[in-house]
Structures are given as C-alpha cells and as structure tokens.
Amino acid sequence: MTIEKKVAFVTGGSRGIGRAIVEKFAEEGYVVGFSYINSKEVANELINELKNKNMEVFALKFDVSNYVDCCEKFEYIYEKYGNIDVLVNNAGITKDKLFIRMSEEDFDKVTNTNLKGVFNCIKQVAKKMTKKRSGAIINMSSLAGIVGNVGQANYSATKAGVIGMTKTLAAELGPYGVRVNAIAPGFIKTDMTDKIPENIKDKIISSIPLKIIGYPSDIANLAYFLASDQAKYINGQTISVDGGLSSI
Ligand code: NAP
Of 30, 36, 155, 224, which one is the catalytic site residue? Predict the structure, then answer.
C-alpha cells in the first residue's frame, strides 16, 4: 500500500522564513510548493538542493497581490497535485517610513501584498478544504501587528489585519475541520532585517529578554507543529516567537 504524501504550499518560500518552512516540511516528507516573485535563480537553486536529497518540491512565480494570478496558479496546483493540505501565507514586504513621509503608494503596496495577498490565497483553498473536512492554514503576522512599530504604520496595520482575519476564519472554517492560526515572529535574521543598520539592530537585540536574534528555523518549527495533528485542538491563535519581546 502506498501512503499518499501530504501537500503544503508556502508563499514567499525562496528566502528567509518561507525558505526555512519549505525545507522543514520537505524534510518531514511533505510534497512542498512555494511561490516567489523575483528570485528565480535562488528558487531554482533551492529546488535543485532539495531534489538532490530526494525531496519533492516545486516552485511557481506569481504575485500574491494579484487575484487572477493566484486563481491560475492554485488551479494548476490542484490539477497537478490533487490537494493542498497546508497553506502557509508567508510572503510579505516592508516599506518603512514615518507616517508623515509615507506615500499612498507605500501604503498600498504593503497592504496589497501582506493583507490582500493572504485573502487572495486563502480564497483559493478554503472551499476545497472545508469540502474535504481537513486542512491547516498558517498566516505570518508579526510582533509589529501586536504592539505597533515606529516607521511601520502600513506594515503593522497589515499584520494586525492578518490576526483579525485568522480569528474570523478560525470561527468560519473550524466547524468544517479546517484550522487557521497565525505566527507573530519578533526579530528574525533574514534579508528583511539585514537591511536594518547595525546600531539599531544592536539596540533591538539588547531589548529582547533572551538577548539574541531569532532564526528562520525557529519559525519553521512552529509552522510545522501547527500544521500537524499534535496541534489538532489549536485554532484561531496567534503565537509569538520573539524571545520574550512581546511579554515585556
Ligand atoms: P524576506 O527574507 O524578505 O522574504 C520575503 C519572501 O516573500 C521572498 O520569498 C519573496 O520573494 C516573497 N515575496 C515578496 N513579495 C511577494 C509577492 N508580492 N508575491 C509573492 N511572493 C512575494 O522576508 P522574511 O523576513 O523571511 O519574512 C517572511 C514573513 O515573515 C513576512 O510576512 C514578514 O512580514 C514576516 N516577519 C518577518 C520578521 C523578521 O524579523 N524577518 C518578523 C516578523 C514577521 P522573492 O525572493 O522573489 O523576492
């Protein structure tokens, strides 16, 4: 008897946290798909690296903020792989500026990617998951969505929005066996945080109770747990992974 492999799809899986989530699910035996928007070479390298380890992975280039693009790509995934058991809405961007200087364009770009992108992707899987009476959706929020952050009016609004959407969908989809949870990372070492000047990074790290930066694998481990049966009674939660920063 062959056991059918579960399928996970991770948006923004070419780099950073998304990449660690792709690696974790692939290592644990999932068929894993991921999206990217620009990093074609990096995505291909990741595919080759994991395929060389006999893992089943695929990548699709599309913009999560484009609804039509999302419809087409998810239709392709369902046709080719038959199902999506786990959706991780990870793709996200920042366009930081003090509110006074923030342009409408910077607000729209961040909102369309970080919040509308989550809506666009969940729309493609929700009905199918409820029909199947199973599925797990994990949305990437942020510490900034819980406590706010200077220079991130756009970003923090999207990440707070993700928490609201997570709670609502947990209530709407829960009765059909679909769990929806969010993760709120603190300060994690990726390209997104590498952009921050060293002196500010040092200041942030000194304010973290554990006094260290987090790593993408710290988030990937929780994402994998939340998707698993070990978390079968966890629904509608936003779990912080931030070295204690949100608790002070
Ligand atoms: P990152 O290193 O900048 O990677 C972002 C990923 O998202 C890349 O794979 C990128 O693709 C993809 N992406 C960006 N815009 C996209 C779009 N419109 N459509 C599809 N894919 C898109 O970011 P990260 O630090 O790993 O962050 C991942 C998530 O965690 C984000 O939602 C972020 O807000 C959240 N988060 C991060 C931190 C942190 O400290 N790093 C803290 C809290 C929350 P390309 O490679 O093609 O550009």
Answer: 155
